[in-house]
Fold this sequence. Notes:
Elements: E1 6-9, H1 13-24, E2 32-35, H2 39-49, E3 52-54, H3 57-60, E4 66-69, H4 73-83, E5 92-95, H5 102-108, E6 118-123, E7 133-139, H6 145-156, E8 159-163, H7 169-178, H8 180-197, H9 202-222, H10 227-233, H11 240-250, H12 253-275
Parallel strand pairs: 1-2, 1-4, 2-3, 4-5, 5-6, 7-8
Antiparallel strand pairs: 6-7
Amino acid sequence: MNSPRIAFIGAGNMAASLIGGLRAQGVDAHCIRASDHGAEQRAKISAEHAIETFASNAEAIQGCDVIVLAVKPQVMKAVCLELADHIGADQLIVSIAAGISCASLESWLGARPEAAPAVVRCMPNTPALLRQGVSGLYANSRVSAQQHQQAEQLLGAVGLTLWLDEEHLIDAVTAVSGSGPAYFFLLIEAMTAAGEKLGLPRNVAAQLSAHTALGAARMATGSDVDASELRRRVTSPAGTTEAAIKTFQAGGFEALVEQALNAAARRSAELAEQLGQ
């Protein structure tokens, strides 16, 4: 597929990671542009990726096939209202802002029933900064097959992409993977503290915990069996691992994880309602 012309509205960390991923895949710098109100940020991203930058959002999107809305959710409404009169019917809108529904984006962009914009809503996560992310994507009914490919190429530049058939499932994606890195950081933090109490130097306990998490994740993503089977294979009867696992389970580990993810999903839905007003 020929590289689409892509404009990034907002040039922060996530936009920079997407641009870097696209450039690493061989997308020509002339196909990418970005706008940002900060002159320092524009200079930085231009120097790093050799792309053209703009102070004006409306100017940045002219002639582009894909418009990536990469601004903070709190300013998304103002940005969309600013762009509403400048967006063409054939341009794809990709939003990577948490908590902003397709309906809100369509409304702010001045959608008419006969000419609603093509919108893909995405929920990436922070490992995208290392091109190890995973993103849930939902497309409204206006998105064409070619635009599906364009969105997948864009988010695929920083990791795995998974399409959703229903938009409300974005809240579940937020709970599992959007917020998920913090859960693993918490576990690494707790294991490090426990290891230190067992007598390990803190730096040793931290490295053991982090690299164990990394190795386990690579085993899980590279295996043809699920996580429960991998756990069974390393849990010898009456062994040390079984002792730890039974302690986790006696403390209600699985139920606590379910409660935590439900809380995150509920909060995601609440934020979408608040931010969409």
